[in-house]
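Field reference: sequence -> structure
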Amino acid sequence: MAVLGIDEITYRAEDLATCGKFFADWGLRLVAERDDELVFHTLNDCVVRVAHPSRAGVPAGIEDGPTLVEVVWGVDSEANLATYAEGLRDAPGYSVADGRVRCIDPNGIALGLQVSRKRAVEVEGAEFNTWNRRPRVNRSAPIYERAVPIEVGHVVFFAAHREEAVRFYTEKLGFALSDQYPGRGSFLRCAPHGGHHDLFLLQLPSGKNGLNHVAFTVRDIHEVIGGGMAMDRCGWRTQLGPGRHPVSSAYFWYFENPAGGLAEYYADEDELTGEWVPRDFEPGPTVFAEWAVEGGIDGFSRRPHGADAPRSGFLTDRSGETDR
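Structure field:
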């Protein structure tokens, strides 16, 4: 059996106009607009849905206010979907309809499974010249004026029932543990071979359930930077970034999302196989981020917020100097 990744997510939010502007600026493609719902696609047709609370059938969610209320995972075949359906019969909220298996996970999140509807896409990311490997010859690295996310790469929830949820995803859906904060957090990937994590469950001392963030995959670090500065120019607020996670090696930039939680651009996560041995980490600022820019980068000055704007001419030029 194989879960391939996230096929669709649904946010619940009242202010559809603001959410619509956010996701359009984020780089998603609007494919449907109704009074009570907006539907966006990523580059590979992963679905991002924003539903008004009044819309019929919107899951209850696990917290008040704007938040993520459903995650639909893509499966590789009808045969494997049927196998998952059989294994989930005893799960709360179980149903099968319209090609989708639904239930509620131990953390209270609405979960769906369907044969993946995402399409294969060809994208060209940057090539990096290192000391001993120099594939980029007679070409400049790309500069992006905005981001166009390829897909929804992972979701992160605060989970009061983290250990029970980890057992559910590993035993029922075949997920694999990548790394963990013992007793606090679990990084899970959909299959033994894949990116570092598709789901991260974080247990807070308060026992809070809720959304932390949704992460959108982009091509490379240059698109993380270009997309982040474009969002800044549009007036959206950085929570943290750009920066780099030591645990997954990924570059990140987090923004406050009016649809709930945070939205993250990320690129260059580790690729793991079944031979990977999960590691234990102790929480700390240098574990979360090897480096990070507090407050983001100003999209106009191309410098951290509060820094002096660059001047025209060479940076080495000094006012009042004359050639000698």
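Note: The mean pLDDT is 95.
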